[in-house]
Design a protein that fits this description.
- It comes from Solanum commersonii.
- There is one protein chain.
- It is built from 26 helices and no strands.
- The chain has helices spanning about 5, 15-25, 30-40, 50-60, 65-75, 80-90, 95-110, 115-130, 130-145, 150-160, 165-175, 180-195, 195-210, 215-230, 230-245, 255-265, 270-280, 285-295, 300-315, 320-330, 335-350, 355-365, 370-380, 385-400, 400-415, 420-430.
- The N and C termini lie far apart (about 80 Å).
């Protein structure tokens, strides 16, 4: 906000100052916020609760949570809106524990709260995956006689799903009065998140039957569920319905990303690429979906071209998912130089803790005959899972390092209660070799 605009309000009345504060809230920045805060102090409006509460929001949106907390501590007569505002500020700045602690303080002081307060707290607990505390809040809402309206119900549906308590999520969904699209989306996405795509699709079909409509969230989840179940015809039907509802893939990112994965998995890479090329905006998920789609359908050159365009033309940096799609291709075609470049990239980006990627790189080195490089990678891995052990044992065996394979199998077996089938299959060539 220009300096002269603030000057215009220096001799303003209370309602004019409050108007200025609300203007700052729409486009907050720390410098302007400090200037207006000084003006509010000068005219003695810090006792005006709506003004102070708005400042909590302004500082929060300016990523200055400490100022919000300091200001909150100075307020003597806080109301529900003020408490809700500071808890929301904490959540917006990813300080979920702070929000929960403030709610506990509010309850201990005997302050009144409403369903909006509980929605805020449940949101914080969802992000923390704090099932036990969430159960307490849910019980508290019932004790206070708060009905499961759509907003509180939706928050609880999402909370239980994120805490991997799907049965409770579904129970809350059934008990929620006046279900809206968000209610349906919450249970549809919750089922998908918890590995039940068949339930996700069933709820979506129920929603469609009841003519509740759908938005991009529900459509993208249903398409993803169809892909998980190999129900490609169903996914195509949902695609057509989405277009009728006005959700064209070129403008709706989540829908388009799900469609790229659907068509790629169905073997129709051309349809996936057609959607990809139509999109007005692409995020990292879009690029990963398309690169993986090319890889799944054997379009190796297209996968590498997409990776190059992503990095050097669109300036989107690859992540672990991108590399996990590409590294198996590098291994299959023994492209050692590309593989080493990707390994170096992971080191520069501190991705060494990504187990699946490290396992893929180890497999790549073995395929390229670089046993020592694979061995060094294995030894340097901070964590190892069964896939790591399977990969190195199989890699040793396939490269003729029979004694090393047998020795490592003994070490693996001594520290693990059971060997997987793939581990045993990996060692068979070594067991058959003369030692």
């Amino acid at each position: 906000m220009p300096q002269r605009r603030i000057q215009d309000f220096k001799n303003g009345k209370g309602d004019e100052i409050f108007e200025l504060v609300n203007m700052v809230k729409e486009k907050p920045d720390i410098l302007t916020a400090s200037q207006v805060h000084g003006l509010v102090l000068k005219v003695g409006m810090l006792a005006h609760l709506p003004t102070v509460t708005t400042f909590l929001i302004i500082y929060s949106r300016s990523k200055n949570l400490s100022s919000s907390l300091t200001l909150f501590a100075e307020i003597i007569n806080k109301d529900i809106v003020t408490w809700n505002a500071i808890m929301t500020a904490c959540i917006e700045n990813n300080f979920f524990g702070f929000a929960v602690n403030i709610f506990a303080e509010m309850v201990n002081e005997g302050k009144q709260f409403d369903s909006a307060t509980l929605v805020i707290v449940i949101s914080a607990l969802s992000n923390m995956r704090e099932l036990r505390k969430g159960l307490v809040v849910h019980c508290l809402s019932m004790k206070m006689g708060m009905l499961l309206d759509s907003i509180l119900g939706n928050a609880l549906i999402d909370f239980y799903a994120k805490c991997s308590h799907l049965s409770s999520s579904e129970c809350v969904f059934l008990e929620t009065e006046c279900k809206d699209v968000v209610s349906w989306n919450s249970v549809i996405s919750g089922c998908l998140y918890n590995g039940h795509p068949e339930k996700s699709l069933l709820y979506f079909k129920q929603m469609a039957t009841l003519e509740k409509g759908a938005d991009s969230v529900g459509l993208s989840c249903a398409i993803a569920a169809s892909a998980c179940l190999d129900e490609f015809g169903c996914g195509q039907a949902i695609h057509g319905w989405g277009i009728k509802l006005g959700y064209e893939e070129r403008r709706h990112l989540s829908v388009a990303n799900s469609l790229i994965s659907l068509y790629s998995q169905s073997g129709d890479a051309d349809a996936a690429e057609y959607i990809f090329n139509k999109m007005e905006y692409k995020d990292i998920i879009t690029w990963n979906s398309m690169i993986n789609g090319f890889a799944l359908n054997g379009k190796i050159s297209d996968a590498f071209d997409a990776l190059h365009e992503m990095q050097f033309i669109r300036t989107t940096e690859p992540d672990a998912v991108t590399l996990i799609s590409i590294i198996p291709l590098v291994a299959e075609f023994m492209l050692l130089r590309d593989g080493k470049a990707m390994h170096a990239f992971t080191m520069r980006r501190d991705m060494g803790a990504e187990l699946s990627m490290m396992n893929a790189l180890m497999d790549m080195y073995f395929n390229c005959g670089r046993v020592k490089d694979a061995e060094q990678l294995f030894l340097n891995m901070p964590k190892k899972d069964k896939v790591s052990w399977n990969t190195i044992i199989s890699g040793y065996s396939q490269n003729g390092w029979c004694r090393e394979a047998q020795s490592l199998l003994k070490k693996f077996h001594s520290g693990n209660s059971e060997c997987s089938l793939s581990t045993l299959l990996g060692i068979l060539p070594a067991c058959d070799s003369p030692t």
